[in-house]
Amino acid sequence: MLSSISPLKKHIGQLIFLLLLIVGTMLILREQHEAPYLQDEGQIFGTYYHITYQHAGDLQPSVDSVLHQVDRSLSAFNPNSTLSLINQNKSTHTDPMLRHVIQLALQVSQATQGAFDITVAPLVNAWGFGFDHTSDVAPSTLDSLMRFVGYRQILLRGNRLLKIHRETQIDLSAIAKGYACDLVADTLQRQGVTNYLVEIGGEVRMHGVNSEGKPWHIGISKPTDGSQPDPSQIAAMLTLTNTSMATSGNYRNFYIKNGRKYAHTIDPHTGRPVQHSLLSATVVAPTCAEADAYATAFMVMGVQRAQAIVRHTPRLHAYLIYTDSLGHDRVWQNIIP
Q: What percent of the residues of the chain are helix, what percent strand, and what percent coil, each to the nearest 5?
């Protein structure tokens, strides 16, 4: 008699456990569905961030903690960051975050034949877009600076970052914001957030749906001259989810001297601001760090070379705005069906 009852009790116990598991899962899903969409914002890396996510509680302390970790590691504006100490030749030691970002950067450098290069800082400063504000670059000065520029000038050896020349400077501004977006997104997901949009300085990573239950709508600004994008001037509206997007353009950061326009994108091969028809490059990629880096690389490469990279790299998609021979704005893209 006991042998026949025990299996029955065991079976009932399993059914009760399964029922509790189903009820618990339904309650969690209901809580997630009914949780409000929150918005956090602030300043980091000399720019602003805006984050929208669905969660029952405020996660901004966790977000700020991640962003300050990035600042302490990657910022060239923080004199005590790991990167700054290396640039000042006070240290060769890295941290895991810096090593990861530099490895990513070197991979994109190799894939773009050096169009993306994190050692262009001396050239950026020389042309008046960095900490210095001079704009007269003599050929002799340019030749001197070019000796210290090139992604092969730096080497990762274990926990150390070695520079062939002490004068070589590393600038991660074209990948750090995208990387920070990725870290914030990872933080949100570890907290159980499945619907979010993270935007830092114009670089974006999104997942799930917006408050209307639809994929996220992200606008691409028209490339009109000005320091700030005009929200009313939209070239295209993309509907995206579970991906990342970054845009780079010369129309926001430039100066005019003696009637000539100097764009902030510097070609590492020539040491000079780029002179071609590409006005802006928007890249959609699995990670925001990758999208950020390739958008910068495409602005160096120009339309045709950027197209070639996209066609041979299935994980990348692009929206390129350029001027034709008559001065009219044109678009090449493989994002919108």
A: 35, 25, 40
